[in-house]
């Protein structure tokens, strides 16, 4: 039987405590039984598991998204190591890691679920396993390049951490990655996923028009303005354990320029510049909420508010607002005869708005300014993703080639 080794981030410290004090059997009975039944000694499996929990506790403090990514990748790796290789993760050799990559490319169907499943839930004070949970999602094709890259990253970070903690004395992941037959060296033109001009006009314009009949859509409109106009990620607008975005995070300098202070990836603070156009939508949103037109330094009102309840919104809730506006726009595009644009919009995600804003502004803003507002640690990242000038010039210079 396949058993989820790791619960939610909130439950992780309890799992660590249960392993330490020997009470796992009373709190996680299925997991405790699984540890007894795997092909390792109980001491080995517990040592492996406690190190995984410690690793996830360290990296999970950065963000819940980071925790989830590492948890998913390492949990399936652990299960493969224990059940198929029948070794501790710290006894695996280079050829074992290569065998795991082969398994990742084509996992056993018994290890895959057809839908996302929860892991554990409370049942009379006990965390009970969902018998339908599986470490993989069932897919028709082999693992994508992005999936493989994420896997290699997680394993490499894990073994580097293990080296620092003197839990192991070798990290075979880099050499396996370098010689992997499944990874394709990227040399083709890569353009980020963005909305077309007409798609953005409909997404923003339809939402704005609907505000007349449904004022609560002002919240959608403001969210769209933040994601596209300030190049924000949804996580940067949402409530997190380490950060609660509030109105006082807007601030004005002595020269009258407005900024928004946010916490980005890796818990890095940055100040994003506000355009005159954005400030007008900020005023509009605040007046709808019954606030003064511009923020004050002492305001604790959440940046994106809940209609019911207190506090700010979660990533999932904000994503639903964006999807609602996408749905309205898609229907309007269909009604107006723009079938292709409507179909393409159906595949869009909220993150496309960040790419859309940055790609559009890359034509007029200095690269360094754009990079800092995006929160990129390296200006080369911004150049690689959003600057298409050289590519277009190369295409133009090649138009007159003769055969």
TrEMBL record:
Alphabetized Pfam families for the sequence: Phage_integrase
Domain Tyr recombinase, chain residue ranges per copy: 190-400
Cell compartment(s), UniProt: Cytoplasm
Keywords on record: DNA integration, DNA recombination
Gene3D superfamilies, sorted: Intergrase catalytic core
Main location: cytoplasm
Name of the protein: Site-specific integrase
Annotated organism of origin: Pseudoalteromonas fuliginea
């Amino acid at each position: 039987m396949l058993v989820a080794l790791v619960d939610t981030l909130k439950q992780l410290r309890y799992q660590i405590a249960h392993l330490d004090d020997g009470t796992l059997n009373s709190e996680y009975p299925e997991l405790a039984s699984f540890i007894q039944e795997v092909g390792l000694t109980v001491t080995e499996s517990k040592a492996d598991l406690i190190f995984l929990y410690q690793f996830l506790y360290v990296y999970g403090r950065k963000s819940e998204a980071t925790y989830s990514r590492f948890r998913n990748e390492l949990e399936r790796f652990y299960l493969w190591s224990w059940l198929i290789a029948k070794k501790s993760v710290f006894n695996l050799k280079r050829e074992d890691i290569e065998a795991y990559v082969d398994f990742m490319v084509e996992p056993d169907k018994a290890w895959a679920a057809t839908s996302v499943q929860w892991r554990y839930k409370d049942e009379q004070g006990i965390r009970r396993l969902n018998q339908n949970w599986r470490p993989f999602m069932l897919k028709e094709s082999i693992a994508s390049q992005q999936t493989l890259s994420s896997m290699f990253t997680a394993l490499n970070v894990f073994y580097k951490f293990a080296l620092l903690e003197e839990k192991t004395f070798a990290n075979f992941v880099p050499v396996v990655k370098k010689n992997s037959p499944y990874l394709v060296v990227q040399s083709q033109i890569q353009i980020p996923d963005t909305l077309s001009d007409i798609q953005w006009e409909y997404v923003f314009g339809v939402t704005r028009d609907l505000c007349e009949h449904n004022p609560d859509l002002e919240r959608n409109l403001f969210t769209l303005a933040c994601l596209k106009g300030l190049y924000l990620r949804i996580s940067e607008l949402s409530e997190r354990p380490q950060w609660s975005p509030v109105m006082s995070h807007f601030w004005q300098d002595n020269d009258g320029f407005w900024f928004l202070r946010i916490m980005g990836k890796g818990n890095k603070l940055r100040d994003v510049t506000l355009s005159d156009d954005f400030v007008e939508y900020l005023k509009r949103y605040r007046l709808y909420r019954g606030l003064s037109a511009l923020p004050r330094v002492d305001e604790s009102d959440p940046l994106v508010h809940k209609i019911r309840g207190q506090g700010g919104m979660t990533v999932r809730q904000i994503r639903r607002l964006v999807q609602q506006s996408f749905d309205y726009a898609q229907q309007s595009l269909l009604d107006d005869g723009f079938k292709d644009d409507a179909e393409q919009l159906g595949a869009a995600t909220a993150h496309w708005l960040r790419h859309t804003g940055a790609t559009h502004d890359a034509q007029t803003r200095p690269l360094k300014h754009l990079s800092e507002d995006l929160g990129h640690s390296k200006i080369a990242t911004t150049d690689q993703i959003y600057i298409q000038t050289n590519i277009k010039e190369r295409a133009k210079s090649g138009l007159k080639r003769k055969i």
